[in-house]
Amino acid sequence: MTDDTRALAVSALTKTYGQAEVLCGIDLNVAAGERVALLGHNGAGKSTLIKLVLGLIRATGGTITVAGHAPGSMAARRATAYLPEQVAFHKSLTGREQLTTFARLAGEHPKTVSPLLERVGLAEAADRRIGTWSKGMRQRLGLAQALLGRRRVALLDEPTSGLDPISRHDLYAVIAEMAAGGTAVLIASHALTELEARTDRIAIMRKGRLVADDTLPGLSQQAGLPTRIRLTARDGAADRVHAQLGGARVNGCAVELCCTADQKMAQLARISGLGDAVRDIEMAPPSLEDIYRHYCGEARQ
Ligand SMILES: Nc1ncnc2c1ncn2[C@@H]1O[C@H](COP(=O)(O)OP(=O)(O)OP(=O)(O)O)[C@@H](O)[C@H]1O
User: Fold this and answer.
1) What is the DSSP string of 45-71?
2) Which of 116, 131, 184, 201 could serve as 30's disulfide partner, Cβ 3.0–4.6 Å?
3) Does the CB atom of residue 189 touch ligand 1 within 6 A?
4) Is 64 in the pocket of ligand 1 (CB under 6 A)?
5) Is residue 145 part of a domain?
6) How far apart are CA 145 and CA 87, in angstroms?
7) Are residues 78 and 168 in the same domain?
8) What is the pLDDT of residues 51-83, one digit of tens each?
9) Separation CA 68–CA 9 (nearest Å)
10) What is the DSSP-derived secondary structure letter of residue 301?
């Protein structure tokens, strides 16, 4: 990643409170158009990192630049969208009034508001007071606010907490559009399953340190985690399949094998050599949850 493409650059970042070292030597870059998941156990330091990027607190050491600017500077704030976990709006305003206010503050024309409300699925509710809205609707309004002004960097803290599955899906679609428009998106979350297919890179924090930062396949490979292959044998063929391939017998007619990513093709060739003795095959590469457990499962106390 070159200096030009890094919308968010964090280098050797440390933060201490008294004797407690909350962040220790964090290096993290997010490029324009990239979606990075920021994972870690409770207290790992994710919110502290976000607060430092927003310029709400000062670092003890290291550097951060947001679109080339110092955190908290006017230029950095103009370049940043932030969606907190608990979005708070004026309850007596309607959604349209609230978003129009934000649009003005972001230097956007008020005519951008209606399409934006439509985009996040709030067109029908737009003229009702926010006080009557559900949590999911408020979260969508938060996302609409984050979409204003085409920011260079978006920091989303648990953006899907409290949302139903359809709303989660819609929200990730909007995040993907945001990234396609060139925004660098950092998503702090515990929702591993939903992040798996919806982010480009995974960064994992453990006790104030960044212990992993790569794509999902890259992390699987580094961690050496196995892909599980489950074969369902034809009637009466399970013993033969097991004898030829090894692994473990499961449920009478199935055999389960494990292999690393680089053994996968060779293993498939051996399986196809068994011809019609194998009726079905399922492959399960390491999930984000497996990877997360590998990097920080034992960090929980
Ligand atoms: N103002 C503060 N003074 C002292 N310690 C603090 C302060 N703010 C945060 N911490 C400590 O810093 C550590 C990291 O907290 P942080 O809120 O960044 O974690 P997190 O990864 O966001 O956790 P969660 O997933 O629970 O939101 C914790 O041990 C927390 O107690």
Assistant:
1) SHHHHHHHHHTSS--SEEEEEETTB-T
2) 184
3) no
4) no
5) yes
6) 11
7) yes
8) 999 999 999 999 999 999 999 999 999 999 999
9) 8
10) -
